[in-house]
């Protein structure tokens, strides 16, 4: 089938999305999701997403589920291995989440500044949690001490 003018279509073939479009349309493909915008009625102005987005999404889910298991375990049985793991995963999880907020809600003119601030905050958080674990009582014991007040 041939698509002309401002028409665009996509087909799901054996679990993968294949996109067909004319020159007037922008199609954004992310694994099984296709967002199409044509002419002046574009639905999305995001950047084109490559195939590694699925792997990144899966990694984010693994980190989130890992945090759901690590936080209670660290509060019940605090030890340095869990503290260092939390010191790495908490800033990473926050960085990915706030990065999505910046892409979705911050105007493009301010996104560069917002991303620089995000990297600074993420590095400061990682450094602070690592310092707390290496030179002080640890992340989990610090949370337990705050709750004991």
Shape: globular
Main sheet makeup: 2 strands, antiparallel
Quaternary state, please?
single chain
Q: If you average the pLDDT, what whole number results? A: 78
Query: Low-confidence parts lasting 5 or more residues at pLDDT below 50?
Result: 1-48
Tell me the span between the first and last alpha carbons. 70 Å
* Helix-strand pattern: EEEEHHHH
Strand portion, in percent?
15-25%
Tally of DSSP β-strands: 4
Short characterization:
By secondary structure, this protein is α+β, with helices and mostly antiparallel strands.
Task: Give a quick set of tags describing it.
disordered N terminus, alpha+beta, two-stranded antiparallel ribbon, 4 strands, two-stranded antiparallel sheet
Write up this protein.
The chain has 149 residues and is α+β, with helices and mostly antiparallel strands. It is built from four helices and four strands; from the N terminus they run E-E-E-E-H-H-H-H. A hairpin with a 2-residue loop joins strand 1 (8-13) and strand 2 (16-21). Helix 1 crosses helix 2 (80-105) and helix 2 runs antiparallel to helix 3 (108-135). The longest helix is centred in the C-terminal third of the chain and has 28 residues, at 108-135. The N and C termini lie far apart (70 Å).
């Amino acid at each position: 089938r041939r698509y002309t003018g401002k028409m665009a279509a996509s087909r799901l073939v054996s679990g993968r999305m294949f996109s067909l479009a004319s020159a007037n349309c922008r199609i954004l493909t992310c694994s099984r999701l296709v967002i199409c915008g044509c002419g002046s009625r574009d639905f999305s102005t995001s950047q084109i997403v490559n195939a590694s987005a699925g792997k990144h999404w899966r990694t984010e889910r693994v980190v989130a589920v890992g945090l759901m298991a690590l936080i209670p375990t660290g509060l019940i049985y605090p030890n340095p291995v869990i503290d260092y793991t939390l010191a790495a995963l908490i800033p990473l999880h926050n960085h990915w989440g706030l990065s999505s907020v910046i892409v979705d809600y911050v105007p493009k003119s301010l996104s560069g500044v917002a991303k620089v601030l995000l990297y600074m905050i993420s590095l400061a958080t990682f450094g602070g949690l690592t310092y707390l674990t290496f030179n002080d009582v640890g992340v989990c014991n610090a949370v337990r001490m705050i709750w004991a007040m």
